[in-house]
Specification:
heterodimer, A: alpha/beta, five-stranded parallel sheet, three-stranded antiparallel sheet, 5 helices, 8 strands, 28% strand, globular, B: 305 residues, alpha/beta, Rossmann fold, four-stranded parallel sheet, 9 strands, 14% strand
Chain lengths: 190, 305
């Protein structure tokens, strides 16, 4: 991802503004997210579903905190590649990964988890993907980072941390299992 | 860069083959959902251009395209103006005017899909051309094989039957060899190519071939409709010499060898009835995997319109 960021900065005239979140800050945001979800769900069953990729890793961390606190729930992962609205515009279609939805979606309370909430298009795709598994009673949205600039009428119910950005900026999230380290970088368009 | 067309296995690298097989997995997982359809090719059109009769391949492609939300048109060649003397070139020009995104073509002439691919911006998928290739069959066979044997290198597959006239044999052999599988042919001397793919063993005797220790016996279909080519003295004779008879089945099932067949099966010719109930007969998996593999192919291509 760092190489990717550098590449971006070379070819598009962008500049890496450096880390906006380090490992400790990310951990704080995950804890905040877990606490809000715990309060939000109250008693009763629910499921946490992470959106690939990186949303699944955030979801795993939130799940681990909740389980440690004795809050039982179902978990799953969703790959939304086949539901994106920009497939026709891409040079190459994104690589698919498996979705893992093992619990019955019908009548379930599902909390979708992603790493960054930006335009809202990923969430729109995730809603379509999830409802093809069944008809949930309720779907909520949790995001580690809300960076603003929505293009669709979508809002998060639970937010780890809000970050102010320009529309053209890139927010690069790196997480341990996927990228080897925890860091969030802002790449500014010049 | 994504490819425009899918015409044969031979021009793909091992990495490309492995990627397609890997991508077929999430597509197969969709089949267990209540909604088996995804919107990936919404608004795209797929045209089925079949100059040769086919039920299985045609419907498999049709299901694959529909599960990707594409609009499917079947160009009914036997009833079309092709019968009235329209040339393939004129047909393609007509289809080009329809602005179709994908053309799935089957034709008795080898190389025709390539010729079409050069004339159109649409993505062309070869669904069988003469004795040349049937690449999606090869891919679904490899997918089925890999489900049973995730580590493909060094495994052995024996292909039995009329190798010479079989595009299935050609594509399946090519894709398996790319995955490091050892392939051998068994068939009548006149129907096994003298010069063929490098590294392929040739057997004429069943006993000898089984001693080689194949992990899978792949039976080719005897093309009963080919009346111009009476290559076997009789079907009963074929069964006796190259079919899985009840006697051979005892040995095969005893050793745990898997059985594959592209379908449709001629019971009592390529295999005896008992084979169809054998738990290591992969024929039904091949059908299901065919849809997933074809979805992966459609998803991987980028029409250049």
């Amino acid at each position: 991802m760092l190489a990717e960021a550098q590449e971006l900065s070379e070819c598009r005239g962008t500049e890496v503004m450096g880390k906006i979140l380090d490992e400790a800050k990310i951990a704080e945001a995950v804890v905040a997210l877990a606490a809000q979800i715990r309060e939000g769900v109250g008693e009763g069953k629910f499921a946490i579903v992470g959106i690939r990729s990186r949303g699944d890793e955030v979801a795993e961390r939130v799940s681990a905190i909740l389980r440690e606190a004795g809050v039982e729930h179902d978990s799953g992962m969703l790959d939304i590649s086949l539901y994106r609205d920009d497939l026709s515009h891409l040079q190459e279609n994104p690589k698919l990964q498996s979705s893992e939805i093992e619990f019955p979606v019908d009548d379930a309370r599902v909390i979708l988890v992603d790493d960054v909430l930006f335009t809202g298009r990923t969430i729109r795709a995730a809603l379509d993907a999830l409802t093809d598994y069944g008809r949930p009673r309720r779907i909520e949205l949790a995001t580690l980072i809300d960076r603003g600039h929505r293009e669709l009428p979508i809002a998060a119910d639970y937010v780890g941390i809000s970050v102010e950005t320009e529309r053209m900026d890139h927010v690069l999230v790196r997480l341990k299992n996927t990228d080897g380290e925890d860091a969030v970088e802002l790449v500014e368009e010049r | 860069m994504a490819r425009k067309d899918f015409l044969d296995i031979a021009s793909l690298s091992r990495e490309e083959v492995e990627l397609l097989l890997e991508q077929a997995v999430p597509f197969k997982e969709l089949f267990t959902r209540s909604v088996k359809k995804v919107p990936a090719l919404k608004g795209k059109s797929v045209l089925m251009l079949f100059y040769e009769p086919s039920t299985r391949t045609l419907s498999s492609f049709e299901v694959a395209a529909k599960r990707l939300s594409a609009d499917v048109t079947v160009f009914d060649v036997p009833h079309s103006s092709v019968v009235k003397g329209e040339s393939v070139k004129d047909t393609i020009d007509t289809l080009q005017s329809m602005r179709t995104d994908y053309i799935v073509v089957r034709h008795q002439r080898a190389g025709l899909p390539l010729a079409i691919a050069r004339q159109t911006g649409a993505s062309v998928i070869n669904a069988g051309d003469g004795a040349h290739a049937h690449p999606t069959q090869g891919l679904l066979d490899a997918f089925t094989f890999k489900e049973v044997f995730p580590e493909t290198d060094g495994k052995k597959v024996l292909i039995v039957g009329d190798i010479l006239h079989s595009r299935v044999a050609r594509s399946t052999c090519t894709v398996l060899q790319k995955l490091g599988v050892e392939v051998a042919f068994l068939g009548p001397g006149s129907l096994v190519p003298k010069k063929g793919p490098e590294g392929v063993k040739r057997f004429t005797d069943y006993e000898e071939a089984m001693k080689w220790g194949p992990d899978v016996v792949y039976l080719l279909r005897v093309q009963m409709e080919r009346q111009d080519a009476p290559f076997f003295p009789s079907l009963r004779e074929y069964h006796k010499v190259y079919g899985i008879t009840e006697e051979r089945f005892k040995r095969i099932s005893g050793e745990g060898t898997y059985i594959m067949h592209p379908g449709p099966v001629n019971r009592g010719v390529e295999l005896c009835h008992a084979v169809m109930d054998y738990e290591r007969t992969l024929i039904n998996q091949q059908v299901e995997n065919g849809i997933a593999a074809r979805m992966a192919v459609l998803y991987s291509l980028k029409p250049g319109i």
